[in-house]
Amino acid sequence: MAPALSPGGNGFAAAWQRELRGLGGNRADLALVTVLPLLMLVLMAWMFTPSVMRDVPIAVVDLDHSSDSRQLLRMLDASPGVRIARQPADMDTARSQLRSLEVFAVVLVPRDVTRQALRGRQGTVFAYYNATYMTTGQSAARDIADAVSAWNARMLRERIGLQVGPAKLRAAPIAVQSDILYNPARSYELFLLPLIFPAVLSLVLALAVAGSVGREIRDGTLPAWLGDTPWASIAGKLAPYVLLFALYGTLGVGYLAWLRGDGIAGSLLLLLAAQPAFYLATAAYALFFVGLARDMGTALSVVGLTIGTALAFSSATFPVLDGPLFTRIWHQLLPLSAYIKVQTEQQFVGAPLSVSLWPLATLLLMSVVAGGIGSLRLIAFGRTPEAARPAGADA
Fold this sequence. Notes:
It is elongated, with a radius of gyration of 29 Å. The longest helix is centred in the middle third of the chain and has 31 residues, at 134-164. 63% of the residues lie in helices and 5% in strands. It has helices at residues 12-24, 27-33, 35-47, 67-78, 91-99, 113-118, 134-164, 188-218, 222-226, 230-259, 268-293, 296-306, 325-333, 335-349, 353-382; strands at residues 56-62, 82-86, 105-109, 126-129. Helix 8 packs antiparallel against helix 12. By secondary structure, the chain is mostly helical. It has 15 helices and four strands.
């Protein structure tokens, strides 16, 4: 039920107090904006604490059966990212183990591969990984490549160098040096949590705001809530949610920056300013959906379809650069996309302020446009006789 109306109470302060009383009188709503977000943040932080993937099971098919190939197996098993879980006799068995998800990658050491290398010919070790589990498979493939590179260098130094003489060894004419920037440990915690934290918080916020505003329409209290100062009343209703979730977002940034990461690479002030800007834009979208639908159930459904799927269109997990036109436009319209740009640029990359001002301004523009349209729709509906009747009541 909507909170009780205080006689003559309208404006920002009255709407703020009314919303707080409403939350205090409804345990489910209060838990939605207090216990649930904090519980989800703690749960996700705990889930990703291991940070780096370890001991991914792989299979090795050793057809060479030489002392050098056995050395490769020992180096693979010593790699922290993978462990040899199976050593099948042939590739057919290895493929079966790959299909049954007993392993996520297969290394094939062909027959006579080390003998060919010692004779000066090209030897090839094959690695196959399960790309349907892309993150796990690619992690295994990287560690396999590192182990094979180390084995290759050892072969060159200890076997081929002794056989042909150090003077005849030549380095490759062109080499590639690849360095990892901004996440050198390849931590999945520092990759995923900065995306999941704001995605989850924005969804809960949008649901809470859509539910709160939608109940005013459902219960027929919209005209009394808007009163004589509708814009101030709308701002007073949204403010507690925006400030509360901005605090949660700040806690998430602090946890990742100083407890799990290496601090803030860019501007802390700009990153803090992005918190209320992001959650205000999200609240404005919820207001927009309620204003268009004028029905709480429909608005909640649309929130789930848009804010709930925003992470997939943010370009942080799946690229949208070459996506269909709709995907690229939808990406630009979502508050999460703009916020993640600011967060990545300031928390991890240390980009100049001028680079991050545009996505921050985009969040403010979203708040004005979406919030303005939604508010105008609510105010117009609030002036009709229908708005004073609870949903389902006889005309």
